[in-house]
Amino acid sequence: MESSSNEHIDYVFKVVLIGDCGVGKSSLLLRYSDDFFQESYLCTIGVDLRIRTISVDDKRVKLQMWDTAGQERFKTLCGHYYRGAEAIIIVFDVTSENSFSNVLRWYEEARQLSRQDTVLVLLGNKSDMADSRAVSTERAQSLAASLNIAYFESSAKLCDNVKETFTATTRKMMEAYQKHHRAHLPDDLTNSKSLHMSQPIKSSTSLNCFDCSIM
Amino acid sequence: MIIKPGSEVKSEETVSDHPLNPNPDSEWCVYFKDNEKLLQIDKDCRRLYPELEFFQKATRFPCERLTNTENGIGALRKRVENCYLESHTVSRSRLGVTKMDTTRHKTGDSRPFHTLGESEEAHWEVVERMLFIYAKLNPGIQYVQGMNELLGPLYFTMASDPNLEWAQHAEADSFYCFTSLMAEVRDNFIKSLDDSICGIGGNMHILMSSLRDSDPAVHQHLLSQHIKPEFFAFRWITLLLSQEFELPDVLRLWDSLFSDSQRFGFLVDVCCAMIRLVRRNVLKNDFASNMKLLQNYPPSTSIEEVIRAAIKSRKP
């Protein structure tokens, strides 16, 4: 899975998954990074990181995907995780009305704690469970439209639309990146061994945003 | 405490209580609030140690008062299932007729685990009941994810005791132990204490300063890579490392942790030792590989080695 260190990388993006407990954030990431599904999965305490390098439009993109804990208790930690994120995916469970009604809360928090150019995406998971669906695609779409963000639907279990969601999100991140005149990483940086070297550059800007929003 | 209102013989004044009573003291009102708590606990207990068969198996000693179908109390499992049925799609047709979608939401789909018979009870259900009662007894803490990971190993140890007389009282015994354990580590679970010295933030700070003293190079390296203790040590400390090692190793480790006279100072020593044992990798890894390393501690490391290293580093 891990790309070799001397591989050419055009972009390094940080993607954070948020949403209620049990909506399938960890399962989505496990499916996407390791192509694996487990019916029952440990609950995430704190945060988990997964990495995958993909090619989008001839560009090599390294995705750093942060899997966060859903419970209210862990929200104080979220500031650390949102920091420097190029995209935040708000996940809900299409069979749970409750997880859908909390989307707005997650959205507001994400907006507050992230940069202005951070790409936000709404994702309805567990689309395979048609029998117990509680939130229709139309309702989710209209909510996403009102928030002016993209909506996707996926099933981590059947591996349906997971890859497509991440690819589309990556494309949006690339657009946002170029739009804000951030020259992408110079070659000498990407060829070096340490991926983290891109971190300080980006996180410094987000740090300012973060502080401003508090004041 | 876990009985549905109205199912027990009541005195005159409580008889007037009903499910739609808006009074906050109403037993029904409390009942519905509790259900939210219960749903969360239920979700987490069903996925307790998924790699172990133990928690999915029926206990030999179910709580008879609940599983006995005659007195009608019913297991918590039933209560959870009823909660799932609450959501119906109500649509209003153009003529103004309210139509309720009668297709029951299949609970079977969302439950990957087979449900046991009426008179049976799985081990995870016993854990669920204990956590629910703990949450009710401790309204200031309630239930926080991760508590299940602390109670799990305790209950496993008690319930798998070869002496059946002891195993029979596993629920009571592990509840007692869990309550005593929580009395010592509960501050880690309390959000408002996060930034205080006694909360999880303080403990992570102690860990990092201890690492700075014992291995400045590694400490500096993590710092330079912006790897914060929140990214790995948060889980290590709150769960007493129960998610980092296999269950038998966790039990071995906990023996040492619980016998520590300056609890839980030894936990910090162990965490520090864990980082130092992989220091060679930490120093050459990049950010992502280090995060991976610390979040998925190499299973090849023997717990004895970790404990030995921790004891050795202990200040006299």
Automatic annotation (TrEMBL), chain A:
<keyword id="KW-0547">Nucleotide-binding</keyword>
<dbReference type="InterPro" id="IPR001806">
    <property type="entry name" value="Small_GTPase"/>
</dbReference>
<dbReference type="GO" id="GO:0012505">
    <property type="term" value="C:endomembrane system"/>
</dbReference>
<dbReference type="InterPro" id="IPR005225">
    <property type="entry name" value="Small_GTP-bd"/>
</dbReference>
<dbReference type="InterPro" id="IPR027417">
    <property type="entry name" value="P-loop_NTPase"/>
</dbReference>
<protein>
    <recommendedName>
        <fullName>RAB37</fullName>
    </recommendedName>
</protein>
<dbReference type="GO" id="GO:0005525">
    <property type="term" value="F:GTP binding"/>
</dbReference>
<keyword id="KW-0472">Membrane</keyword>
<keyword id="KW-0342">GTP-binding</keyword>
<dbReference type="GO" id="GO:0003924">
    <property type="term" value="F:GTPase activity"/>
</dbReference>
<dbReference type="Pfam" id="PF00071">
    <property type="entry name" value="Ras"/>
</dbReference>
<dbReference type="InterPro" id="IPR050227">
    <property type="entry name" value="Rab"/>
</dbReference>
UniProtKB/TrEMBL annotation, chain B:
<dbReference type="GO" id="GO:0005737">
    <property type="term" value="C:cytoplasm"/>
</dbReference>
<dbReference type="GO" id="GO:0005096">
    <property type="term" value="F:GTPase activator activity"/>
</dbReference>
<dbReference type="InterPro" id="IPR035969">
    <property type="entry name" value="Rab-GAP_TBC_sf"/>
</dbReference>
<dbReference type="GO" id="GO:0006886">
    <property type="term" value="P:intracellular protein transport"/>
</dbReference>
<feature type="compositionally biased region" description="Basic and acidic residues">
    <location>
        <begin position="7"/>
        <end position="16"/>
    </location>
</feature>
<protein>
    <recommendedName>
        <fullName>TBC1 domain family member 13</fullName>
    </recommendedName>
</protein>
<dbReference type="GO" id="GO:0016020">
    <property type="term" value="C:membrane"/>
</dbReference>
<dbReference type="Pfam" id="PF00566">
    <property type="entry name" value="RabGAP-TBC"/>
</dbReference>
<feature type="domain" description="Rab-GAP TBC">
    <location>
        <begin position="1"/>
        <end position="261"/>
    </location>
</feature>
<keyword id="KW-0963">Cytoplasm</keyword>
<feature type="region of interest" description="Disordered">
    <location>
        <begin position="1"/>
        <end position="20"/>
    </location>
</feature>
<keyword id="KW-0472">Membrane</keyword>
<dbReference type="InterPro" id="IPR000195">
    <property type="entry name" value="Rab-GAP-TBC_dom"/>
</dbReference>
<keyword id="KW-0343">GTPase activation</keyword>
<comment type="function">
    <text>Acts as a GTPase-activating protein for RAB35. Together with RAB35 may be involved in regulation of insulin-induced glucose transporter SLC2A4/GLUT4 translocation to the plasma membrane in adipocytes.</text>
</comment>
<comment type="subunit">
    <text>Interacts with RAB1A and RAB10; in a GTP-dependent manner.</text>
</comment>
